[in-house]
C-alpha cells in the first residue's frame, strides 16, 4: 500500500497509556507519515504530568510522528471540571489544529474515541479544511455510557447528546465499532449503515513475551492464588462488586487480589479496602506503563475483567480482554454479553454475570482448586483464540485497507457533490 499522510485526532496520547500510542507507532513503522493532534497529558490523575510540564519540548515527537498539543484544561476533580476538560479540548483543538497544521496535507483523519464523543468535532473540522475523509473509531458508546455510569440522568440532556452523536457520525466517512454489538447502536445515530464497520482492539505484542521477570513491587507468595485486575479504575468497572467478592473470601488465606491501575475511583478504592479491613487480601499497586504490565501478569494465576450490569456494557469488549487472552493467563470475567461470550467461546477461563459477587468468589475458588496444568491449558486456549480473532498484524492490515477504502469513498462523494 502506498504511504499515507494520516492525521490522528485524540484527546489522549503518550505519555498517557492508550492503545492509540501503539497504533501510531505501527503506522510510522509501516512508512506512513503521521501527525497527532492531542491535548496535554493529564489522564487519569487530572493534573498535567510533571515531566511534560518541566520539558514540553521532549513530547513533540513520538516514534517518527509529529505531536501537536492543543491548549486545554486538565480534568482535575468533579463533574463540572470534567465537562470543562472536554469542552476546552474541542475549543483548543479547533483553534490550534487549523493554525499549526496550515499547509500540511492529509490523506485521512483518524479519530480515537474512548470518550468523549466531542473529540469528533475538531476531527470533522480538520477533515473539511484538509478535504480528507474522517474515520471514527468508536470505543465508547454515547449517550448510552453517560446514562450507564450515572454521569447524566436527564432524558433531555441525553437527547441533546444523541443529536451531537448523530451530527458527528453522519459527517464521518467510516464509523468503526469496537464490538459487533456496537453496530446496531451506532446505526441508531447514523443515517447510512453502509459506512459502519466492525473493528476490535488488537492483542498487543508486549503480552506475547516469555520468561518475564516478575515485578519487584509484588512479594512472591508460593501456594497463594493471585487474582490480578489491571487497567482503568472507574465507574464502569464495578469495583464495589469486586471488593464484595474479595470480602466473601476474606478468610481464605490462599487467595489474594492484585490491582494495578489508576482512575477516578482510585481514592475510593483505597479508602474502601481499609474500611473493609482487606489490606492483607487486596494489594493496590498504582499505575504503571503498559510495557511493564507483563511483569505484573507474571504474578497472576488469573486475570480479572469486570463491567457494571447495564445493556450498554453487555455490548462492549473491554480493551484489556484481548491483552489478557494473549498473555496466556486464564481469565476470570464478571461480565454480560459479548465480552463474557468471548471468554466462554475461547474456553480461556470462567465467567459469571455482571455484578455477581458471589459468582465471582465461587469462580475464584473453582479456578484455585484446578491444577497448574489445567490452568495452563486454559491460558493456551486463550492465546490461540487471541491470535485467531484479535491478531495484531491481521487487524493492522484490515485498518489500512479501511483507510484506503475511506479515501476512495471520499473521492466518489466529492465528485458527486
Layout: helices, strands, pairs:
Layout: E1 5-9, H1 19-29, E2 33-38, H2 50-54, E3 61-62, E4 65-69, H3 79-100, E5 108-113, H4 120-130, E6 134-138, H5 144-148, H6 155-169, E7 174-177, H7 182-187, E8 196-198, E9 225-232, H8 239-248, E10 255-262, H9 266-275, E11 282-286, H10 293-297, E12 302-306, H11 311-314, H12 319-327, E13 331-334, H13 337-346, E14 349-352, H14 357-368, H15 372-390, H16 392-416
Please explain how this structure is put together.
It is a single chain. The mean pLDDT is 93. The chain has an 8-stranded mixed beta sheet, with helices on both faces. The two termini are 28 Å apart. The protein has helices at residues 19-29, 50-54, 79-100, 120-130, 144-148, 155-169, 182-187, 239-248, 266-275, 293-297, 311-314, 319-327, 337-346, 357-368, 372-390, 392-416, and strands at 5-9, 33-38, 61-62, 65-69, 108-113, 134-138, 174-177, 196-198, 225-232, 255-262, 282-286, 302-306, 331-334, 349-352. 43% of the residues lie in helices and 17% in strands. With 417 residues, it is α/β, with parallel strands linked by helices. It has 2 domains: 5-202 and 391-416, Glycogen Phosphorylase B (Rossmann fold, 3-Layer(aba) Sandwich), CATH 3.40.50; 205-390, Glycogen Phosphorylase B (Rossmann fold), CATH 3.40.50.2000.
Give the second-level CATH assignment, the architecture of the largest domain: 3-Layer(aba) Sandwich
Through-space gap between termini: 28 Å
- Counting structural domains, the number is 2
CATH class of the largest domain: Alpha Beta
The gross shape turns out to be globular
Q: Total helix count?
A: 16
Rounded mean pLDDT is 93
Helical content band: 40-55%
DSSP strand (E) fraction? 15-25%
Tell me the CATH superfamily of the largest domain. Answer: Glycogen Phosphorylase B
